[in-house]
Design a protein that fits this description.
The protein is of the alpha+beta class. It is built from 6 helices and 8 strands, in the order αββββαβββααβαα. The protein has helices at about 10-20, 65-70, 115-130, 145-150, 175-185, 190-200, and strands spanning about 25-30, 35-40, 45-50, 50-60, 75-80, 85, 100-110, 155-170. Strands 1, 2, 3, 4, 5, 6, 7 and 8 form an 8-stranded antiparallel beta sheet that branches. The radius of gyration is 20 Å and the shape is elongated. The two termini are about 25 Å apart.
């Protein structure tokens, strides 16, 4: 990971907040032949005492699922919209253009779980993202046979995070005039650019 002191959050809670705000992640591992594999899924993040856990589920018999059953080392990548930053926006022009972005890398050990964990996870995931507790799509309102048939095709997991790294590259290394002009230019751009301008402002 790109590791420069300029591009770090002010405190640990800011990193956690970013993870909670961007729960659709990429999970990376290595298969039996040493080739990289990855999957994209929504996850739940839980703090228990001084430990951090990431929970989710995969479809069975996929390359990434098979890989994690053999090698439980996992890298979970949290990301958000990013934006190109032109050097022409700097107060001093003799510099290279760059890219602003935010990402968090969580490294940990994946533990595949059983049916009770899966049912509980699906209930929690649905409750978290559906919001309406009375929605017909809540797990408690779904037909038990439908749940049983679909649960047979998926498996849930917990990842205990053992290392957390991040980059919040938001032009912190630029002078005040450049910083303000970068935000102004980004606010005139795409939705992703505007997102990044807001992140810089925060």
């Amino acid at each position: 990971m790109y590791n420069i002191p300029h591009f770090k959050a002010k405190d640990h809670q800011e990193v956690l907040d970013f993870m909670y705000t961007n729960p659709f992640v990429t999970i990376c591992g290595v298969d039996a032949n040493g080739f990289p594999v990855a999957g994209q899924i929504p996850v739940l993040i839980k703090q228990e005492n001084d430990k951090l856990f990431i929970s989710g589920h995969f479809m069975r018999k996929q390359d990434h699922t098979n890989a994690f059953e053999l090698n439980n080392n996992a890298l979970v990548i949290f990301s958000a919209p990013s934006a190109f930053v032109s050097a022409s926006w700097y107060s001093v022009k003799e510099a290279a253009s760059t890219w602003n972005y935010q990402t968090v890398h969580a490294v940990g050990k994946m533990e595949m779980k059983g049916e009770d964990h899966l049912y509980s996870l699906l209930s929690e995931l649905t409750a978290h993202f559906e919001k309406d507790p009375n929605a017909p799509t809540q797990v408690k309102n779904l037909d038990p046979l439908y749940m049983k048939e679909n649960m047979a095709a998926i498996i849930s997991f917990d990842i205990e995070v053992i290392e957390l790294k991040h980059v919040f590259k938001l032009s912190q290394n630029r002078d005040d005039v450049s910083h303000e002009n970068i935000k102004k230019e980004l606010n005139n751009g795409t939705p992703a650019c505007k997102y990044m301008a807001a992140a810089m402002k925060r």
